[in-house]
Amino acid sequence: MAKVIFPDLWRELCRTQSVWSAFKPSLEWLGIDRRTLPERLIALAESKALEKQRSLLSSLDEKALVYLESLAAINRRQANIASRHTLIANISAPIGLALGLGQIFPEAVAALMQQEYEFYTITAISIAIVGIIATVLHAHIRAKQAEDLHDLICFALESSRHEPAGEE
Hints:
mainly alpha
């Protein structure tokens, strides 16, 4: 019998994470991450966004949770790496390049900035900026979801280890 590396449960846990749900109004729009609040574990345990994942994890035994925690740790690490690379490639590197060019060719950059642009050029630049912001935001949301899933699985695992004897 072949070993199943990614059980259907793992695939279902990943499918339940919608990018669009992260766009609903929240304190994060004001730069306030819920993890800065004192009841962060309660928020994790009661989060509506993680309700489906909690129900999928609720009936699992410790062995299954340990395996899922290992997958989630790898998933979290990979998502964080991708998020950092996306931020560097789309924000840090272009800003660094623009600043560097401004230092090397100050007259050319000043002339470029003072020039009048046509509507189509401004529209193309605006679309590019929106695309860059969407790409970076998408990577950030996915990294945050990977962290939440890993933390939720760790929470479920520790809860299963500390259940009173005799309770199911």
